Write the structure tokens for this entry.
Amino acid sequence: MSDLAIAARQTGTRPHVSFEFFPPKNETMDERLWECVRRLEPMQPDFVSVTYGAGGSTRTRTHDTVSRLANETSLTAAAHLTCVSATKDDVLQTAEDYWQAGVRHIVALRGDSPDGMGQPWRQTDGGFKNVIELVEALRAHRPDLGKVFEVSVACYPEPHPDSRGWDFDLAHLKAKQDAGADRAITQFFFEPQIYFEFLDRARNAGITMPIVPGIMLQPNFNGLKKISNLCQATLPDWLHQLYEGLEDDASTRDLITANVAAELCHKLADGGVSQFHFYTLNRANLALSTCHLLGLKPAREAEAA
Ligand code: FAD
């Protein structure tokens, strides 16, 4: 067990967590999301975020989900927003709609090309040139009220498919920080040294904002292989071996997924990390198991202890 988990259990020191959801497509998925939200709410995450479909395809569903989270739960809700297939005015109108709904945190992204993931990035006519422009615009939104959006951005401990090398990538991330980003959340990874090497590179490049590790909770290994392939995240051999032969055994895959995530978090915590962002895939059991393995208790239990 990591120092963080021992401390969490003995002294009540809480690791900081955030949870990422995707907007539901139908009634069944809607029920699953809200059950997930109800079960994770007592873990008192710093925030929860809701993804934006590729090409802006979930604009309304993302908006409705984030607004409900902001208005019907005790959670701090964040909305993912991309620069894809929308003019600057459209994107800023969406941001204003969030503002009106009480949402004050945006996860700002360039997004994938409107021609599809893996295709070269193409700016929309009248749209933002890149995510730096979007971060600047969000930070400039509503300063008249003395408040602006909190902004998180993405970063890539293993180079993104569009990467032209570390020098550009780090300068680009620094530019997101200089434009006003408050934190960066990483793409998922499975080996702690991938995160720590990236953290060293980032700090040496003058990036001082928190770099929160994104922890994947995908128990469907075939699905994980597909997405890893697309975003070029390494799946180590040991991970292939762990899931081998479990194609028809979902419950054992769940146990393995939570244990792999918790072990990764423990190793990150041993290196000083105390904030974790979980890609929950709207599955409460995996996020809850991982949190418990990290020593994070639901708020009421933690108070009584
Ligand atoms: P950027 O960081 O701007 O760029 C990605 C890479 O390309 C970086 O390596 C950068 O250095 C390089 N690059 C950018 N511009 C140039 C240039 N001009 N020349 C050379 N290299 C360049 N996608 C969605 O559609 N919806 C979501 O809700 C969503 N949520 C996400 C949340 C997180 C935490 C993460 C990590 C990713 C998420 N994505 C989401 C995926 C993301 O949209 C894609 O990875 C997209 O391709 C890049 O967006 P970005 O903002 O990270 O881009």
